[in-house]
User: What shape does this take?
Amino acid sequence: VQLQASGGGLVQAGDSLRLSCAVSGHTFGTLGMAWFRQAPGKDRDVVARVSWSGTMTYYVDSVKGRFTISKDYAKNTMYLQMNSLKSEDTAVYYCAAGVRRGISSSTSYDYWGQGTQVTVSS
Assistant: This one.
């Protein structure tokens, strides 16, 4: 399975960005997926998860109401729509996937994309 993340950039606080994670090499509909982020000097933490069925989602409290995770089955692509960006959202964002994964806090992923940098200036 190959994951290709894109869409990062430099924006101002309050702006929006949409990250994409294109999937190849596996049946997209069987993959539970997630976005993680890692700020300088910090651990990589989960931002949002979507179940393999696409019917369940999870968001970390700090992004609830601002970020939306979604799967486009026609394009084999997962998205993270990020609105009302804040300086504390600055990080490298990674997409991840695993076969038939749910959204529980113990969910692990077998496949990872390369990171895409998001920088939010205040």
